[in-house]
């Protein structure tokens, strides 16, 4: 008899964004005359930068000739891309990251979800609340939690991110082994300061813990004082893994390319306290289960770092940040407290009512957002509005919301 992994029974029936998509489809079927404006899932809408498109075309042409055709590439990514990432994203900011500490992949969702495989089942895991659901769900699947009681999984140390702490959780009183952090934050759009991140790094060093730092929204940082990488924090090379993505930076959600940085200084320990290099473990996992991102896509990602690519990416981000400013202003004018939107494409709105109810009210008006409660208990009462759409659609959505709520 084939037996299931019973931990899957503890999961909510479906993934948050699938749940929302079902509600939106049902609404559209019942209201064919009201086309919805989607400011829900953080999916980009603007075309790939021209520099990436040109690089992609050129690489496809190379694949069409025997002399330049490529079969399997290195699982960790081609050197041309890893070198461009190391130089532009890290070394230029004074972070000593080498190309061979970078693992190219097809998404930060997969990497943040898969990374927990390297750790024992009985480690203590700290997860922010609200949170991008992948961190929690993959730990539930792996059996690191108990049952779901009063809105929380037993066995997880929740890091409450609330208005009171500026949506940056404080260090937990108890000791934990694995810590998930995401800045600029999904879903709140909040950022963490250098000294706040330093506290986490110092804590992880004291506890021999590890930080999984999701920096997928790094490109949206406009404030010069906000760190772009955890490796800008002294000591982080020993205790932090960083996840990055081209999805939101350069419109690659459908194209798929991301990377994870595993510094060679990070160690994990076995039951005897003997230490192992995390880099070697992730390399073993990655090369066993993954065969690399396709050559044309890696060439397109490399073009993000070309002089034209850099200008085009900046333009793309600027457009989304302008949308974010429109959303934040409109919601504030309606009397709602908001965070995010200044260094992030997400605006976290205190709806002062049940999240799903607020979601339904906006859906009735023809606007899709994301209910905060879907990200955790501390998200109750909030909604997340995404800036990923055209300016026209964002303005139209804000008009609909104003009409529906006033
Ligand atoms: C989100 O809306 O939170 C993101 O699009 C999810 C993701 O990047 O997987």
What would you note in describing this structure?
It is globular, with a radius of gyration of 21 Å. It has 406 residues and is an alpha/beta fold. The model has no long low-confidence stretch (mean pLDDT 97). 37% of the residues lie in helices and 16% in strands. It has two domains: 139 residues, Aspartate Aminotransferase, domain 1; 253 residues, Aspartate Aminotransferase, domain 2 (3-Layer(aba) Sandwich). The protein has a seven-stranded mixed sheet with strand order 2-10-9-8-7-3-6, sandwiched between helices. The protein has a four-stranded antiparallel sheet with strand order 13-14-17-16. The chain has a two-stranded parallel sheet with strand order 1-15. D-malate (MLT) binds next to loops. The site of D-malate (MLT) has 6 residues, from loops.
